[in-house]
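Lab notebook, page 48
Experiment: co-folding of the full assembly
Goal: obtain a model of how the components sit together before planning crosslinking
Operator: M.T.
Materials (sequences as entered):
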Amino acid sequence: MAMSTDPPMYDVAVVGAGPAGLSAAVGAAEAGLDVALIDAGRLPGGQYWRHDDEHPPHPGHRDGRLFARLRARLHHQRRLGRLHYLPGHQVWLIDRPRPDTGPFTLRLNGPYDTAPVERDRVRARALVLCCGTHDRQLPIPGWDLPGVMAAGGVQALLKGHRTAAGSRAVVAGTGPFLLPVATGLAQAGVRVLAVCEANPVHGWLRHLGGAARVPAKSAEALRYAALMARHRIPYRTRAAVTEILGEDRVRGVRLDSGEVLEADLVALGWGFTPALELPLMVGADTRRDLDGSLVAVVDTHQRTTVPDVLAAGETTGVGGAALAVAEGRLAALTVAAAHRLPVDPRAARRLRATIRHGRAFAAALHGTYPVPAGWTDRLTERTVVCRCEEVTYGELCRARDELGAEDPRTMKLLARPGMGWCQGRICGFAVAAVTASLTGRPATAEDLRPLSARPFAALVTLGELAEMADGDEEPGADAAEESGADGDGEP
Amino acid sequence: MSHARSECGTRSGAPSYRLTFDGAAVTALPGQSVGAALMAAGIVSWRTTRREGRPRGLFCGIGVCFDCLITVDGRPGQRACLVPARDGMRLSAEGGDGEGDGEGGGDGDVD
Ligand SMILES: Cc1cc2nc3c(=O)[nH]c(=O)nc-3n(C[C@H](O)[C@H](O)[C@H](O)COP(=O)(O)OP(=O)(O)OC[C@H]3O[C@@H](n4cnc5c(N)ncnc54)[C@H](O)[C@@H]3O)c2cc1C
Ligand code: FES
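Observation: model returned without errors.
Model output:
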């Protein structure tokens, strides 16, 4: 599948075609730059505007109109030859032969064996990383049973594949995102037995103070409340699922009240975890955000701490699609200004104000829907924490008590959590939290980093590695090994 | 594995594809992933884990967790949530570690 023609050079490569990346790529192309837009998905829109081949997001909907416009502008810029859109391409490695200066090489492959790739490499003078998130998960006894899914995954099946993942569902965890998942299932004919929100109800009322500054958001909350009522979905607050029941597939859940609900689908979500492997790979600084997730540090121009690398959307902190769009637009203006193209300073000011309000609202949400303190108390000796390597809580405890593993890096080496196929994407947050709690301290960014850095951002074939090692003028192979060697991606 | 699942929303005129899973017929709609088609057919697992032999199917639904590995037309280790269903595809369950034919880099052991 590999092609060894000279990789083309772009002014900017945008990774991710969700709300942030689409806005950044379209904005940069319209400003006059040569843009590559690389996205693992087959269709533009990312997680928020996920759709299938025949059902684009509804244009009657406020956000649907925004998406329709962005998509039209994307295709217009493609026709003009300013924007090269590469859907179905994963960036698995980024290297920059000369530290902090000169172009980047991005290596690309397809998400599955038979996916044709148009390019296996592109080069770019600047990067905008808009890699989005996935659902954050906390291990619960029984969460590895078939029929238990990430809440966002259930939503993705509905929106992207027209498929309801079960017929009797419980939606559990924390956060406002549980509501669209529950109402989406109900609209698809699934009986939703309950939304189990782990945090207290007055959260809703408290965060309206912040929401008043972002009126569209409060309207959205009211719309979901109405839908929940129409479908008679009980919204239980301070309700945590303590155990998922079943032998070889899910049969139900037990709540902390002791009550059992029989279900064939359990959707779990505890907020979101940004995908930080590419920012870490290029050496960008990261920090722990208010929701406890590791995020890329950016300034008020969306610049990371690495020259010519920008980040936008949930890569810089979980905060929803509207904020992601504003950040993507601002990133485009910053790249344009760096190329000495004319930029309207009022536009940048307006975007900064939108971003400030969006972040304040996100902060209110994070305060209202925290990961519940003490969640690790529910883990049992046999609860699987790392699904890939099947590492249990008991094994983590023994690695701490008998082998002295006090930080996630040592934990990884001694007990192997985060060392399997997903590379800690699913269990990373939990392993950091468990390790810290076993050591009697709160989790820090230091705990999260080794579980968020990956030698490669996507699965690579041995052939691709071999080709990289010998076919290149650039020292890509060394960079890859170094970032894998100590696991924290600092080149 | 008997629970019937619904496909929400019918597509007027969209012809459905015919696939097989371990020899049994499964239908899929254009645009559905093979994982979605299996779920819609009430099949919730198609892999067993390496250590404990536990069943696995879709979990993250978006290509992140690798729980859903499946063999598609003889190619092992494909993510069922990403591979679009096509007419005539042969799907088969994956046992043990689900590991394919010499893929590297997924194991994190570059150290
Ligand atoms: C499964 C899921 C479902 C969601 N559904 C909803 C919903 O219905 N409603 C809602 O309000 N919010 C939803 N969210 C939250 C939503 O993700 C955000 O609000 C919004 O999409 C953020 O936009 P973004 O541009 O930052 O990232 P995203 O929309 O996540 O886009 C990031 C894109 O980058 C791509 N990418 C990442 N890494 C690479 C790489 N290495 N190479 C190539 N491409 C890469 C991804 O494939 C993705 O297309 C969902 C989140 C998830 C995880
Ligand atoms: S369900 Fe997670 S990778 Fe397919």
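Interpretation: The first strand of chain B starts at residue 17 and ends at 21.
Next step: discuss with group before ordering constructs.
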